[in-house]
Design goal:
By secondary structure, the protein is of the alpha/beta class. The chain has a single domain, classed as TIM Barrel. It contains 10 helices and 12 strands. Strand 1, helix 1 and strand 2 form a beta-alpha-beta unit.
Length: about 325
């Protein structure tokens, strides 16, 4: 095994579609704010930046291809971090609409939700009496009536497109049964091994309970169903569970862990994070105490077998 294979990849998810501007003045909204947060995360030690975009006027999560191109082009001009845009899109978007930014960008990686899951962020609305923008409460309440529900045919469409453009999907796993979707896509020849799995934990309603027990359980399931040699893995956890669950994953030998303002707006108990870099620095310090070295973007490309920054379309 090459030396870089033992190194830890840190992903910074810099804005996402979970948190609303009312929750934090530091949540990146405009393209330039998203770019700055990603670059600072890279400087702090992140090898990957997970990219969502927002309406620059009011912070509403959107999937505008032009915003994705602007953000990714500007980040690429400043550093060599791996850019991993979302295919999650909006709650009411079609598969074709969600794929437009990926078709234009042809990135090294992208996120991929192959299995149905609920996006239970409605409880956030009860924490606030007033909101910065009119859309925020309606957006949070919308998820009571909307499920992310890709069909098997949707999965085939997504997977074929990723193969066509040479983009490696990061497969988001929200519960134990989701591993079977990955196994099926491998059997169909629509995913190349080793696949890259990301185990995603709450505290949102409908997601895996963030606990060591559930992390060990889904990791063992992946080993049993897929074979340990057929996947690399990452862990993301929301809110106060972000650092404890990712630290546990590091102790278990995870290839990759994710932090960032998409998953938590804090950098310690009661301390609002001013940038995703604050959390990258926290996990970097923990890694140091565990005698783990961080992977550079170029080393991460080798670990994950990516096509390279020179083959993207931005």
């Amino acid at each position: 095994m090459s030396k870089e294979m033992d190194k830890l990849i840190i992903t910074a998810a810099v804005t996402g579609s979970v948190h609303i501007p009312t929750m934090s003045d530091y949540l990146p909204i405009t393209p330039d704010e998203i770019v700055e947060d990603a670059v600072r995360a890279h400087e702090a030690g992140a090898a990957i930046a997970h990219i969502h975009v927002r309406n620059p006027e009011n912070g509403l999560p959107v999937s505008d291809p032009d915003l994705f191109v602007e953000v990714c082009t500007k980040i690429k001009a400043r550093c060599d971090i791996i850019l991993l845009p979302t295919t999650g899109g909006g709650m009411n978007q079609t598969t074709a609409e969600k794929l437009i930014p990926i078709e234009r960008l042809r990135p090294e990686m992208c996120s991929f939700d192959p299995a149905p899951f609920n996006f239970g962020i409605f409880q956030i609305a009860g924490r606030f009496k007033e909101f910065k923008y009119e859309w925020e409460k309606e957006y949070l309440d919308l998820c009571k009536n909307v499920t992310f529900r890709p069909t098997f045919n949707d999965d085939i469409i997504y997977a074929k497109k990723f193969l066509e453009i040479g983009t490696k999907p990061e497969l988001e796993m929200y519960e134990l049964g989701h591993i079977s979707y990955v196994s099926w896509l491998i059997e169909e020849g629509l995913l190349k091994t080793p696949v890259h799995l990301q185990f995603v934990f709450g505290p949102m309603v409908g997601w895996m309970t963030p606990s060591v027990k559930h992390l060990v359980l889904i990791h063992d399931e992946a080993k049993e169903v897929l074979g340990e040699e057929n996947f690399t893995w990452s862990v993301a956890a929301g809110g106060k569970y972000q650092i404890p669950i990712t630290s546990t994953a590091m102790a278990m030998g995870a290839s990759n862990v994710r932090v960032g303002l998409e998953d938590s707006i804090y950098a310690g108990k009661g301390k609002i994070a001013k940038a995703s870099a604050d959390q990258v620095k926290m996990i970097k310090n923990i890694a140091k105490e565990m005698s783990l070295e961080l992977a550079t973007p170029e080393e991460a490309r080798k670990i994950l077998r990516l096509k390279g920054l020179d083959k993207v379309n931005f």
